[in-house]
């Protein structure tokens, strides 16, 4: 199957009470690990590319890696999505350059400016057959080198969502209900809890409309431990409990963003490999188990968190 937009995927996910996994891709091994798991589990998938990924790997390399995955996995629908598009120009460049979906992240702007910017991107994207994700509310954590402290983060205000969606024409909406970017989402000793009351209020105001959750890594403790036991220092890394993500997927949440978990699997595996094999230096030898562990982690997410296995 060729690249698709997320329109049909989200419609089916909403009706079926599951979510599509949106995994960040930065290199070949990550693309392969994700798509091999999705192919084997017959799961639709969103491969997303951040501004930082484009700066690191180059737009063309990333598009061609995704095209290669589509040739290798013809059975599954794949969306190529821009994650956290910071401005109109970046969105336009991705729309012109073969993406089927873009996010315009106007969440740091005022409500009025966010609407104006998002509307401009939607008009250009829709004229080119591309769908758009907008954002209301501010997540804490690190993204594209911008750090948002917990004090500066803010939950999405349900009373704003109808006006935002109506005035911008966005196809999906990212909301802030307590998730955050990176590996340190909750303070050790506190009870992680997403604000399902806000999600329910928003979904009542926007019936049938696809909601997106960013910052939804669960920070698997086996990989945190593997990192810490092999020279790393990540004390107190805590993620979103998987049962809460599963609950969100059964409600209006149709897209769940996962990046940090892939990074932890890759880093833990490579650190352990070097600790166990100090004389080895062939990148294929340490990237192979890293890719295999990404694949198994994605398989676990598809089956146990997203519920999108068998939906391709
Ligand atoms: O939300 C941000 C994603 O995890 C992408 O991170 O900007 O470091 O590529 P990045
Ligand atoms: P995590 O840092 O929780 O993986 O979130 C990723 C994300 O939201 C990408 O946009
Ligand atoms: Zn994000």
Task: Record the strand order, biggest sheet.
Answer: 1-2-3-4-5-8-9-10
CATH topology: TIM Barrel
pLDDT averaged over residues: 96
Query: What small molecules are bound in this structure?
Result: glyceraldehyde-3-phosphate, 1,3-dihydroxyacetonephosphate, zinc ion
- Total DSSP E strands: 10
What does this structure look like?
It is a single chain. The chain is of the alpha/beta class. It has a single domain (7-306), classed as TIM Barrel. The protein is 48% helix and 15% strand. The chain contains 12 helices and 10 strands. It has an 8-stranded parallel beta barrel, surrounded by 10 helices. Strand 1 (20-24), helix 2 and strand 2 (45-50) form a beta-alpha-beta unit. Helix 2 (28-41) packs parallel to helix 4 and helix 9 (221-229) packs parallel to helix 11 (260-276). The longest helix has 24 residues, at 283-306. The radius of gyration is 19 Å and the shape is globular. It starts with 6 loop residues before the first helix and ends in a 6-residue tail after the last helix. The model has no long low-confidence stretch (mean pLDDT 96). The structure holds glyceraldehyde-3-phosphate (G3H), 1,3-dihydroxyacetonephosphate and zinc ion. Zinc ion binds at residues 84, 143, 181, 214-215, 257.
